[in-house]
Amino acid sequence: MTMQEPALTTTRELCGLVGELSRQIGDHLRERAGRLGLTAAQGTALRELTGPMTMRELSGRMGCEPSNATFIVDKLEALGLLERRPHPSDRRAKQLVLTPEGAALREKLMALLVRDSPLAELSTQEQAQLHDLLSRAVLPR
């Protein structure tokens, strides 16, 4: 065994664990969003719409291209869950704002997502610690 073997094994195992956690969170979201008549992508958009934001901000939070977010936002807008409004300081941009119906549905979704979450076994302190570690790992270099 080389000196690198333990580090490589740890890296491989961490990648596997992060991948599995991501899969579980995705499955959890898909199932909970489906209960509300939403696709996983629509559920992700509602989860990430914590306040008025631009399409670029939303797509960044969702981890997708703005064109993909546009398609999802179009569907949510057609359902009456959000509106595009003029941006208060950038006349070229629009802000995405939840309608009262959208805000109510987001609340229901968030309540469902908290229940039996793949992260539910971790204490609040452990979740904060995991957040800090993952944030450090994904920060741009």
Automatic annotation (TrEMBL):
GO biological process: response to stress
Gene Ontology molecular functions: DNA-binding transcription factor activity
Domain HTH marR-type stretches: 11-139
Pfam families linked to this entry: MarR
Source organism superkingdom: Bacteria
Name used for this protein in its record: MarR family transcriptional regulator
Annotated organism of origin: Streptomyces hoynatensis
